[in-house]
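task queued by scheduler; priority normal; single chain, no ligands, no partner chains; default sampling; output format set to structure tokens
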Amino acid sequence: MLRKQITEKYSVSEQITLDDVNTLADAGVTLIICNRPDQEEEGQLAFADVAALAKTKHIDAIHIPFSGGKMTDEHVNQFAQAIENADNAHAFCRTGNRSSLIWQAVQDAKAAKQEPATHYDVVIVGAGTAGISTAASLLKRQASLNICLVDPADNHFYQPGWTLVGGGVFNIASTRRTMANVIPKGTTWIKESVSTFAPEKNTLSLEGGKQLSYDHLVVAAGIKLNWDSVEGLKETLGKNGVTSNYLYDLAPYTWELVQKLDKGKAVFTQPPMPIKCAGAPQKAMYLSCDHWFKKDKLNNLDVSFYNAGAVLFGVKDYVASLEEYIKKYQVNTNFGHNLVKVDGPNKKAYFATTDQDGEATVVETEFDMLHVCPAQTAPDFIRNSPLVDSTGWVDIDKETLQHTTFKNVWSLGDVTNSPNAKTMAAVRKQAPVAAHNIVEAMKGRTVNAVYDGYGSCPLTVERGKIVLAEFGFGGKLLPTFPKWLNDGTKPTYLAWVLKEDLLPPFYWRGMLKGHEWFVKPQLRK
């Protein structure tokens, strides 16, 4: 069964089997809807058999069958009633297409009944770093703009700080503000989720049914941490020695584990790209090892790094310095190993890899501490929208940040298909470019600000020293400081001061306020 997630509460697939009913039950599905007539093809599983097994799993099952091209208003009404209060619904037909179409028909029917869309000059989807920075930069250029930020979150986080929380440097509370505290003055905040986009109509629909229309749309929806990509991981996160600095609630647990571990095996993992802050899995490892090294515990520990990729870091200029720390901390590196399963109670991790003959295999390792970085994708409501490319990321011109099809749609941050590193530093450069180009487009002028792919990864190799990796498209080095002041390919104390002392206030009081220090947009001549 290839399950396609339409929203967090609704998914579709081709014809399911009885084994698939068990899978859906394990995934928390509470309602199964069949959109196929029985006996549509030879050997087809009868709906009654699906319903009988579903009942034993405490799953409701409803039959709303119709042939392809013969969906009626009655079918749509029945379907709308069925899913209205469902916590987690899954529908199927022969290919999944009818189940997708009837869901969309319900959304269209809701939109037709509601009040006219509320209009804004600019609608920004996502009030993370990218969304708020862009809103603030727009207002710096044109304070009269009517801007709406759409985001259901209660809190806003300084996520780069979580690495230092996991290393015992920062207090976790310092990385959080209430969303109301950081929304730029003069903008409207709608605390809801987006359900669907209709870019050909310049509108989008919210989960609550309301519609918004816009002159320009900015998609800054961030990235989804796909914890479900690893079997057994969600069930053991935060216990059994399994942690991740990618979660606000778990970064303190990382530091707790590091302090308590005196002997045994510590395992750190990195999934296939793309992920946000590609250096973060290593940062957790280096800071942990530095603590064990200084506490004279490292000789009693077996530290391993399992990386789904083929290299330690994607830009070769920084690898030599990192390899020195790999040697210093006696880390066993394993490339081409992707975490696929975690058995928390028995403290075992399983990695998919290939053997010496090139055959796919799964290897097992024990652990006392396991730091996990999950696979990552664009959020479901983005991946199922008309805004994405074939890989599920928002399709933009990597330099102008303008959508390749819809010219009044812009995107930045982790959700795009731009080949830059997905980091906060990238957004720092992208937000002024997006804001400049949007204002130019509003004035009917050719967009001329370009983004050079800048990203930064402060690799915390030890407490007090950082390898400040700064690079653009194609791995081109783009250092902020002259080499005599800070050689970014080497570990330096200055880079540590930047990370620990300067960047947090720079973020809260600078970026989120629209101050574009050191990132004035580069203009095409």
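post-processing summary
- The domain at 119-223+378-523 is CATH 3.50.50.60 (FAD/NAD(P)-binding domain).
- The chain has three domains: 4-113, 119-223+378-523, 226-374.
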